[in-house]
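Session log. Operator J.P. requested a structure for one protein chain; no other inputs attached. Running the standard single-chain path with token output.
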Amino acid sequence: MALMIGALILGFAAGRCRLLPDFLRSKVSAMGSLALIVLLFTLGLSMGSDEQIIAALPVLGLKAVLLAVGTVMGSVLLVWGATRLGGRRR
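Structure written below.
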């Protein structure tokens, strides 16, 4: 957990101090999207290959689906709201 928080703080500091060259700064959004897609793919791969999760799906059923959908929707709405309130600099 400390590694993740440290990476976030380091990235924030690099962004604020403009340590990245312009050609990389313009690609940060695309790199973040790609990283998120890779993360979600590996999460799905991990879940799909876990026999215990597959066996528990009938038991978990609708609750698991609603929890997953709610989590994704909540995350998207939070990012959208933060972007809308905070504005985006280009």
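Operator note: The chain has two domains: 1-49, 51-90.
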